[in-house]
Write a structure and sequence with these properties.
- The complex is a heterodimer of chains A (287) and B (426).
- The longest helix of chain A has 32 residues, at 3-34.
- Chain A contains eleven helices and two strands.
- By secondary structure, chain A is mainly α.
- Chain B is an alpha/beta fold and 426 residues long.
- In chain B, the strands form two sheets. In chain B, strands 6, 7, 8, 9, 10, 11, 12, 13 and 14 form a nine-stranded mixed sheet that branches.
- The relative contact order of chain B is 0.12.
- Classes of the chains: A mainly alpha (287), B alpha/beta (426).
Chain lengths: 287, 426
């Protein structure tokens, strides 16, 4: 493996891992704070990609799509939380598991009905096409944008979680909801906010991943698998775990495909098994 | 009880029709009706030609969810243009691309819906399963796709007809074309499953036999979404290939082609050549300009400038305004054209299965694909084309080069063995 190959795979792994962070963050926080194993999370990513695709088709503007699609999906997330998920708070986790699993099927079929089964892809503006020479390595401009954009977004989230009052509430909620309520904080408002915010984040990931890959009505399964893998590797309810887990996943995919092409996905599973055996709660579990 | 004049119950009944009178009346009326009216109706029924019941077990969900409905549209269109348009009745079922479901649906169509002809499933494993069940029952199965080499080899059946293709006849014809047009060095790529591997294997054998050289190869798992690590292997090959040949389908192909361009391979003069018509009309839009200049191999060319295709295109656009013409639609139409011709040969009698079988076994017909002929192993010998993706007036099209007529040979030297019905030479 040459130096340039290692660098390309490293960059590629970090880029895709950073995009995975946006998905995994929402999944792990919703699970960690709200106790909802949201199987519809991949569906929100998929809907974000499809809504983004439609907005770009109508407006020919990637930025409008990157702004409006998450907004629309966040609104949908709000509706889902208000009218469906909130009914099962405090009840057995299986209720929300089955509910969100059913929702994911509704989303897939809705996509099939509205957009059809033909795979689509989000077309990029001309200035994102082509490459940038990074120390002798030609790297696609858009991938570089994804890397920078995701780093900025994840950094902002980190600051929000560690420096803001709401961030403190969310972090406290990971450990003890009753105590948070005892402080007079309406935890159900926090839940609503989290669900809306995480749905929007999933849609952001949908738009940028949809611009790198094809989008189709079964893509949600890939993303829910990504989120579950990250939770297993990084640990439940841990923001740090989501970040590190996503990067490990991205790098494992990149180097695994390079080293043992036929068993690329095996690398990811091998890491997951190793983590389960050595640290059953994940690398950075907060619970 | 109110009594009649003679004060008895019997008197009351006297005014009513007794059982004997009733039977007599019915008998006379019935006899008259049979003599005068009903025989007329009976003779009319006898004269009316029987319904042609066609079952279509195809994918309406799963990976071929797009193809199934289009195949069905094409099939119906062909019959709507024929003299059987008022007699034909279609029964559509979803196989979900699962062999066991396909078999259940095939049996349901034959046993419950009483279809006369079954147009078969899309995927190769479904076709094999359905054919294995229907053959002992002497039931007809016509495959539009069903790319299964064994069905034209040792598992061939006098009742199963493959109008589509196999991995063999979609890869071997490209070897001499590659050598002549691109060069003698190829990098083989593909999705790591039976079809992807077979395509590469058949191409390699044919290519090396005529002096070609394989400079590298990789097979990525089915459903891979990120190809960057694989693409760097093409760049790192010891010798720069004249082209990369292989097969990715659907979403995999979109991702592969877009990333092929994204990571600069296209810019650096690398080219991708696919098999099984991967650059079909319904995915070209999603690939965008990334696919322009690349090639694939297929037996169908939408918008091809031949009279049969022009007729088809006009009919399609009239029947389904605004809907893109694509390969699945053409294949469905092709099956319809073939069945109409077979029905013509048996006097329009769909119940004459043995007659249809013997006609189909030797059938030749003109379709939007060109001239089609059934091979002795019940697999069609079709015109094969190398298709270059081009962009004309903001629309994606194929520029086709005719490669020749190709069926799927069989015999002990091939993995799929010998068909007891016979084997074509090409």
């Amino acid at each position: 493996m040459t130096f340039s190959t290692v660098m390309v795979n490293l960059l590629y792994g970090i880029t895709i891992g950073s995009a995975y962070t946006l998905i995994a963050f929402g999944f792990t926080i919703i699970f960690g704070v709200m106790g909802v194993l949201n199987f519809a999370h991949g569906g929100f990513v998929m809907l974000g990609a499809y809504v983004g695709f439609t907005i770009i088709k109508l407006t020919k503007n990637f930025w409008i799509s990157l702004f409006l699609a998450p907004l629309g999906i966040a609104l949908l997330g709000g509706i889902v939380e208000k009218f469906l998920v909130s009914r099962f708070y405090g009840k057995d986790i299986h209720f929300t598991l089955f509910l969100t699993f059913g929702l994911s099927m509704v989303f897939s079929n809705a996509v099939l009905l509205i957009w059809g089964g033909v795979p689509q892809s989000i077309q990029l503006p001309y200035y994102f096409k082509g490459f940038i020479n990074l120390f002798g390595i030609y790297y696609p401009k858009f991938r570089l944008f994804v890397l920078v954009f995701c780093c900025l977004l994840v950094s902002s989230l980190w600051i929000f979680l560690t420096r803001s009052r709401w961030g403190s509430v969310i972090r406290a909620g990971l450990f003890d909801i009753e105590t948070v309520e005892a402080f007079g904080i309406d935890i159900y408002r926090v839940f609503s906010f989290l669900f809306i915010f995480c749905s929007g984040m999933a849609a952001v990931a949908g738009v940028i991943i949809g611009a790198m890959r094809s989008i189709n009505p079964v893509m949600d399964l890939d993303f829910i698998l990504v989120a579950l893998s990250v939770v297993v590797i990084g640990g439940l309810g841990s923001f740090k775990g989501a970040l590190i887990g996503s990067l490990i996943l991205g790098l494992a995919e990149a180097f695994g495909a390079q080293a043992i092409p036929g068993f690329a996905k095996f690398t990811t599973w091998a890491i997951m098994v190793a983590v389960i055996l050595l640290r059953p709660k994940g690398l950075f579990s907060e619970r | 009880m109110k009594r009649n004049n003679n004060g008895s119950k019997r008197g009351l009944r006297k005014n009513l029709m007794n059982r004997r009178d009733f039977i007599k009346t019915i008998g006379i009326t019935g006899g008259a009706a049979l003599t005068l009216g009903i025989p007329g109706s009976f003779s009319l029924v006898r004269a009316a030609e029987p319904e042609i019941r066609i079952g279509h077990a195809t994918a309406l969900s799963g990976v071929f969810a797009v193809g199934g409905p289009l195949l069905d549209k094409g099939l119906r269109l062909a019959f709507s243009l024929s003299k059987y348009k008022d007699r034909v009745k279609f029964f559509l079922e979803d196989t979900q691309v699962k062999a066991e479901v396909a078999v259940q649906k095939a049996l349901k169509l034959y046993e419950k819906d009483k279809v006369h002809i079954l147009v078969g499933p899309i995927a190769g494993h479904e076709s094999a399963a359905v054919s294995a069940v229907l053959t002992p029952m002497k039931k007809l199965l016509v495959e539009a796709y069903g790319a299964n080499s064994y069905l034209v080899g040792k598992d061939c059946s006098p009742y199963t007809f493959m109008l589509g293709h196999t991995t063999y006849n979609l890869s071997v014809p490209m070897a001499p074309w590659f050598l002549k047009n691109l060069g003698n060095k190829v990098f083989l790529v593909g999705a790591d499953y039976r079809t992807g591997r077979d395509i590469a294997l058949f191409f390699r054998e044919a290519f090396e036999k005529i002096g070609g050289k394989v400079v590298g190869e990789f097979y990525s798992p089915l459903g891979t979404t990120e190809y960057a690590p694989y693409l760097s292997q093409i760049r790192n090959a010891k010798e720069k290939p004249n082209g990369c040949f292989g097969f990715y389908g659907g979403s995999d192909c979109i991702n592969f082609v877009r990333q092929f361009e994204e990571f600069g391979l296209k810019k650096d003069g690398y080219i991708y050549i696919s098999s099984i018509g991967a650059f079909s009309m319904n995915v070209l839009g999603a690939m965008g300009d990334a696919a322009v200049g690349f090639y694939d191999c297929f037996h169908t060319v939408p918008y091809m400038d031949i009279p049969q295709n022009k007729t088809f295109m006009a009919a399609w656009q009239k029947a389904y305004p605004g809907e893109m013409i694509d390969e699945f639609g053409i294949m469905g139409f092709d099956v319809g054209v073939c069945l109409v011709k077979a029905l013509d040969a048996v006097g329009g009698d769909p119940t004459n299965t043995e007659g249809l079988v013997s006609v189909l076994h030797k059938i030749e017909y003109e379709s939007p694909r060109g001239k089609i002929r059934m091979g002795p192993n019940n697999g069609t010998i079709v015109p094969m084309y190398a298709r270059k993706v081009v962009k004309k007036e903001r629309e994606f099209r194929h520029e086709a080069t005719f490669l020749g007529f190709f069926g799927t040979p069989c015999g002990p030297q091939y993995e799929w063995g010998e068909c007891k019905l016979g084997c074509p030479s090409t």
